[in-house]
Design brief:
Layout: E1 16-18, E2 38-44, E3 53-66, E4 71-76, E5 83-84, E6 89-93, H1 96-121, H2 125-172, H3 178-221, H4 225-251, E7 253-255, E8 260-265, E9 272-273, E10 278-295, E11 307-312, E12 315-327, E13 337-345, E14 356-360, E15 369-372, E16 377-379, E17 382-389, E18 392-398, E19 400-402, E20 407-410, E21 421-424, E22 436-438
Parallel strand pairs: 2-22
Antiparallel strand pairs: 1-2, 2-21, 3-10, 3-14, 4-6, 4-9, 5-8, 6-7, 8-10, 10-13, 11-12, 11-14, 12-13, 15-20, 16-17, 17-18, 19-20
Helix pairs in contact: 1-4, 2-3
Length: 439
């Protein structure tokens, strides 16, 4: 009875023995119908191995929420682990001061708009009539001032003649005393001062007439374009201030920008929120990403949009479908690997950030075959395998890579494919072309 040899084959491969087993081989000619054939043991190669690309799972969206304004926290509506919807209020700041700013801005806008509207509407009939009356009053005052000036001029002429007569008489004879000359001099000075005052009053009255006429003319014509532009600019400026005040008020209510889960809360009621400082971390795990680093000799086989399979060690019985979403054209600064991202659906919530994932990309993995070390033949610093070619053993040169103490990886070629039979333990008697028979 023939002894059956059993070989230990790794479970990762589909490698199977192909030999002459009892009940399956032709034993009718025990002496051997072909005495030239050398009996050998063979195995059939399994499928190519794809070790996959190792990466880490990260959230598809990871947002650090900050406050746009500084203020005291009035309330925090969420806790770590809470699920929120987009638009839900997360944190509320106190708004008393902000409301006062809004009211002040609204008052300023209302006043400026009213002034602009009145100016655009122009003067009313009553205003025109009032300005016409002002012109008439100014003209009347001017006429009175003119009459007063004429009286002052006549008084000055009289006092001048009297003073000149007294002065001549005082100098030529003693008929005029010093007291009479002094009185005549004083009357002259008074008349001169009165004339000057009357003259100034007439000029002032004339100016008032011109001013009243100008106001009346402006009221009849209406405001100039520059006046309207200046008033409109003031309205726009105050509107901008109102919008800013409303924005600050709205920013005091901090809402969720996306659907997600609160993973960190670093603020509590009563504390001061500082503008630009993160207060809540929110992630969306309905879809996750796997971050990979792909070697430079494989990156050309990785393309955006390519479907992939993702495996996670903690969930060994499930494959996740993913798609390559990003391939960096720039390598990592400290290595010859390129960043790649894969998007994976996670609506069931089985994948968590930080998990190690194995991504299998068609064509990007190492296409290698596993063979037992006992099948490797070494000659002249080269390594070979014997493959079965019909009834002959053919020597094929291979390149190997260490796997463990019993197995090695072999790169496939046109003569060595995943479904070929190879000879194990070939021995020294076997040569290229030797007739063999599977045993």
């Amino acid at each position: 009875m023939k002894k059956i040899h059993k070989w230990l084959i790794p479970t990762v491969l589909t490698t199977v023995f192909v030999g002459i087993l009892p009940g399956c081989s032709d034993t009718s000619d025990a002496s051997g119908a072909n005495p030239a054939s050398v009996p050998v043991k063979v195995i059939k190669l399994g499928q190519f191995t794809d070790p996959g690309l190792s990466g880490k799972i990260i959230p598809d969206q990871d947002i650090k929420i900050v406050s746009k304004v500084s203020g005291k926290v009035a309330g925090v509506n969420v806790q770590e682990g809470d699920k929120v919807k987009k638009g839900d209020v997360l944190v509320q700041l106190e708004t008393d001061d902000l409301l006062q700013q809004v009211r002040q801005a609204q008052s300023g806008v209302a006043a400026a708009e009213a002034k602009l509207a009145d100016t655009q509407a122009g003067a009313r009939t009553q205003e025109i009539q009032g300005l016409e009356s002002a012109v008439k009053m100014a003209q009347g005052a001017y006429e009175q001032a003119t009459a007063a000036l004429q009286q002052a001029s006549a008084a000055l002429d009289l006092s001048t003649k009297t003073y000149n007569r007294l002065r001549n008489m005082f100098d030529s004879s003693s008929s005029v005393t010093q007291e009479e000359l002094d009185k005549g001099t004083l009357d002259y000075e008074k008349a001169k001062a009165g004339y000057e005052q009357a003259q100034a009053a007439q000029k002032s009255a004339a100016a008032q007439v011109e001013a009243a006429k100008a106001k009346l003319e402006q009221a009849r014509i209406g405001p100039t374009d520059n006046t309207l532009k200046a008033l409109q600019a003031e309205v726009d400026r105050l509107h901008a201030g109102l919008e800013l005040a409303n924005s600050s008020l709205n920013n005091a209510t901090i809402t969720a920008p996306i659907d997600g889960v609160v993973v960190k809360k670093s603020i509590s009621p009563g504390e001061m929120a500082q503008a630009g400082v993160p207060i809540i971390s929110l992630v969306n795990m309905d879809q996750v990403q796997v971050e990979l680093s792909v070697a430079d000799n494989q990156i050309s086989k990785v393309n955006v949009g390519t479907p992939v399979q993702v495996k996670v060690q903690s969930i060994p019985d499930q494959l996740f479908q993913g798609t390559i979403s990003f391939v960096s054209p720039v390598s990592n600064p400290n290595s010859n690997t390129f960043p790649v991202k894969v998007k994976v659906d996670n609506k069931d919530g089985l994948l968590f950030a930080g998990m190690v994932a194995e991504v299998h990309i068609d064509g990007a993995g190492d296409n290698r075959i596993e063979v037992p070390k006992s099948a490797i033949v070494k000659k002249e610093n080269k390594e070979y395998l014997f493959i079965m070619d019909n009834d002959a053993a053919r020597l094929v040169e291979v390149k190997t890579e260490e796997k463990n103490q019993d197995w090695v990886y072999v790169q496939p070629n046109d003569k060595l494919k995943g479904d070929r039979q190879i000879v194990v333990n070939p021995g020294d008697k076997l040569a290229d072309g030797t007739k063999v028979k599977a045993q």
